[in-house]
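Reviewers of the previous submission asked for a worked example of the structure-prediction workflow described in the proposal, so we include one complete record here. The input consisted solely of the amino acid sequence. No template or homolog information was supplied to the procedure at any stage.
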Amino acid sequence: MVRKIAFGLLWLGFIVYAFILSPPQQPGTFELIKNLSLGQWQGINPLVIALFNLMGVWPLIYSAVVFIDGRGQKIPAWLFAIASFGVGAFALLPYLALREPNQKFVGQKNTFFKLLDSRVTGYVLTLTAVILVTYGLTQGDWTDFIQQWQTNRFIHVMSLDFCLLSLLFPTLVKDDMARRGWENHQMLWITALIPLFGPLIYLCVRPSLLEVDAQNITAKQPAAN
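From that input alone, the workflow returned the following structure tokens.
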């Protein structure tokens, strides 16, 4: 219950900060988002371009865990995972507040789950992140970025969203490890202390899911009186 309340308060606090306390919305924000989405990047700070695209990588990282975790949840995890592609942590925080601990993957992996579970997915996402981070750090203008962070709500909130997604990911790792029969405290610390690349390393090295037959679980349950 404490965990649920904490995530709920964090979600509400993030909403209040983003829409009331953060810097004001700038007139050209919609045009900026449109150009970033369409790849029309001329004149845009490479740091902003890299950050925007990394915010597309993060939902894929979470999807590789959330869809699997959702197999044993009463709430539709897929709904929150898909919404995260548009609003990031604003969509994932309610899921983290509502989900229950889930340390078994019941049933068989279909093609979609095999893709999410594959280390190849982790490799592709890691390569994408390395390219984007390298591009942003080597080509970007930090002075301009800091100025935009201080004055532009979109840049400001997107940056905080990135940080929040980095902080929240480890809360899903322990159950994901249990579903794989894997105990690795060092990896837990890696996901917690290394932003972005810690979770990506985890996706690249985690063992395959252990599938549990639903019929066996039913058989083990005591019969109702």
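Residues 98 and 108 are 25 Å apart (CA to CA). We consider this example representative of the routine output the project will generate in years two and three.
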